[in-house]
Design a protein that fits this description.
Blueprint lengths: L4 E2 L2 E5 L7 H16 L5 E8 L4 H15 L3 E7 L2 H10 L2 E7 L8 E7 L8 H12 L16 E3 L3 H11 L10 E5 L8 H8 L3 E5 L21 H6 L4 E5 L6 E5 L4 E2 L1 H14 L7 E5 L4 H9 L3 E5 L3 H11 L3 E3 L5 E3 L8 H15 L3 H5 L7 E7 L10 H14 L3 E7 L5 E8 L2 H20 L1
Parallel strand pairs: 3-4, 3-5, 4-7, 8-9, 8-10, 13-14
Antiparallel strand pairs: 1-2, 2-6, 5-6, 10-11, 11-12, 15-16, 17-19, 18-19
Length: about 450
């Protein structure tokens, strides 16, 4: 039996299992059944999507399934994932459903689900929903004798989130800042420019013309270098690149240098620590974060907690322990005082606010850590065999870790959203990184790629 859920909802190639109208219809029925019985929020679901062409197909099927089981739906159209999470709570809905494949290419799509409080679902609830869908256990396939659900189109959803995002920085004026903003032809294409302009920034836009097939295509957070020339030629203060559903952000400083999530987390943690706003003086990271960030935080008296890869695991740890800042090197940054998931727009607003309040450039603020040499490789694979079945790979990883000790890291893992394996090597010297990385990659190519 095939699983539906990965590390970030359901994801795959559009119109191929599991991203098909048939599965979306069953999923809609399962979600209605589970959340109507939850007792949390009103019996309605907020449904949003990014700009992929396949979003129309999946939206119609999902909504049909929800309505057939008596769940009202509120369609908000193209909407950033964090905005959908916020609106779910704002509308007092039972759940929120976002149709997106985030940073993946246009031919992919996916479905992310949020509970009534705007948080991603725990594993146990995902398993329950998955069981209903895969085993056909969606009872009472129609709503009789209950009424069929009603479908609504919400026209003011965009304005609600715009005001919420600006309020997170207390409508701090951004006048005097020149910003290059790349929206990846994705969900934030119309909303993000308005937010920064309304707060007074001069905004030069890129990738704000989605056509259903160009989302993330050589633009956005997956390709921040695409706006380097725009930043330099316009003498901008900062470049901001969002991904397809705007839950992550990568920056460029005025010199065109890419500023990743680790440096943003570091500068924000230091700022909040100085202002005594960092709960329990702790920053939550994943195993992908650079050792240099851990060392810089240690020197500043800030504790670090490490979770599995995936912003959902960062958020779970933050909720369980009362922390208010965490995120990933890839650009998912969670300011738990304001949001329930990674939010690229709100992160960018807080970074710009910090630049103005400290009267420092992004380059100066981001110079908060010394990065260890690091190499990240992703390989397409035939299938995700358990590592226990590949003893040569486990032995090589063990030798690498023993050799590097505390002055390096080795992370080898399967992607939770794609048929890929990822290898992260980090050490004091670039030669060590390249040597061990190539040795591990050679085994992977032989065992999993041929």
């Amino acid at each position: 039996m095939n699983k539906l859920f990965g590390t970030d909802g359901i994801r795959g190639r559009a119109n191929l299992y599991p991203i098909t109208p048939d599965i979306a219809l069953l999923l809609g029925k399962a979600l209605a059944q589970v959340f109507r019985a939850s007792g949390h929020g009103e019996k309605k679901a907020v449904v949003g999507k990014d700009t992929r062409l396949s979003g129309y197909m999946l939206e119609a099927a999902l909504i049909s399934g929800l309505l057939s089981k008596g769940m009202d739906t509120m369609a908000v159209g193209p909407m950033p994932t964090p905005a959908l999470a916020h609106l779910t709570k704002s509308f007092n809905a039972s759940c929120g459903i976002m149709i997106t494949a985030s940073h993946n290419p246009a031919d992919d799509n996916g479905i992310k689900i949020f509970d009534a409080d705007g948080f991603k679902l725990p594993d146990a609830l995902e398993a329950e929903i998955e069981n209903y869908v895969l085993r056909g256990q969606v009872e009472n396939p129609c709503a009789i004798p209950d009424p069929i659900g009603k479908a609504f189109r919400i026209d003011d959803a965009r304005g609600r989130y715009i005001e919420f995002a600006k309020a997170s920085v207390k409508n701090r004026s951004l006048r005097g800042l020149k910003v290059v903003l790349d929206c990846a032809n994705g969900a934030a294409y119309s909303m993000a420019p308005l937010i920064f302009k309304e707060l007074g920034a001069e905004v030069i836009t890129n990738a704000i013309s989605p056509n259903g097939r160009n989302i993330n295509a050589n633009c956005g957070a997956m390709h921040p270098e695409a706006i380097r020339e725009l930043v330099l030629s316009n003498q901008a203060d900062v470049g901001i690149t969002l991904d397809g559903d705007a839950d992550r952000v990568i920056f460029l400083d005025a010199n065109g240098r890419v500023i990743n999530g680790d440096r943003i987390l570091g500068m924000c943690a230091l700022d909040m620590h100085r202002r005594k706003r960092l709960e329990k003086d702790t920053l939550v990271l994943t195993s992908m974060s650079n050792l240099g960030l851990h060392r810089a935080m240690e020197e500043a008296g800030i504790h670090t907690v490490t979770t599995e890869v995936g912003d959902r695991y960062v958020i779970e740890n933050m909720r369980q322990n009362g922390y208010n800042l965490g995120g990933e090197q890839s650009g998912h940054i969670i300011f738990m005082d304001y949001v329930t998931t990674g939010d690229g727009i709100i992160t960018a607003l807080h970074v710009l606010k910090q630049m103005l309040n400290c009267d420092k450039s992004l380059a100066e603020l981001a110079d908060c850590m010394q990065e260890y040499p690091q190499r990240l490789e992703s390989l397409n694979i035939k299938g995700k065999r358990p590592f226990e079945e590949i003893p040569t790979l486990l032995q090589e990883i063990a030798r690498c870790r023993e050799s590097l000790g505390r002055q390096g890291r080795t992370v080898v893992r399967y992607s939770g959203t794609e048929n890929k394996i990822r290898v992260l090597l980090e050490a004091e010297k670039t030669e060590q990184v390249d040597c061990w990385c190539e040795r591990i990659l050679a085994i992977i190519r032989k065992e999993l790629c041929e």
